[in-house]
What we know:
- By secondary structure, the protein is mainly alpha-helical.
- Helices cover about 50% and strands about 0% of the residues.
- It contains eight helices and no strands.
- The radius of gyration is 42 Å and the shape is elongated.
- It comes from Cladocopium goreaui.
- This is CCHC-type domain-containing protein.
- One of its GO terms (molecular function) is zinc ion binding.
Amino acid sequence: MAAVEAVCSRCQGKGHRAADCHLPFFRSCEYCKTAGHTAKECPLLRHCTYCKCEGHTNRNCAKLLAKRAKARASDDSKSETSEASNGQSGVSTASTWASSPPKKQQWKRWTEPQKPRMQALTEDEEKQARKVEKKLREIAALEARLAEGETLEDLQQKKVDKKSEFEDCEVMRKLRSGYRRCELPAKSLIEAK
């Protein structure tokens, strides 16, 4: 098998590899295929799109810069004459500024937590809430009897002890947080009893 001569991918020279090349590593230009610059900085590709001249870009074009400076000067003179005739400053641009809110207000609006809509209990939750309220009324009556000095039976005492469980149930938490009560039809009221 014959030995293959190595070709450098940096300088295109024969007899050595890119790792052993004397040239420093640069990205090669995709336009002129030489190392040391990219296509964006290629001297062959540099030309102005405004005046179509080579050797400079739109950023450095003297003709384009002069045109922009002239346009700025005419805009300044127009704004000065409109201020003088109206007697107010910034009248011409105020309408465009007022159309969109400032960025800070937009950001605040996006980051604010959404307020929950006024939600209502379902029919089942309403039935459960009415049952719990009835038990709480019974417990309040038992506590009033206890405060008067009467002794309660064991079952009645257990009911009084469970008051916190009834108050902390999910339906009562929803009612405390602002859920609306649900109107039950007459048929379901009869079934609930």
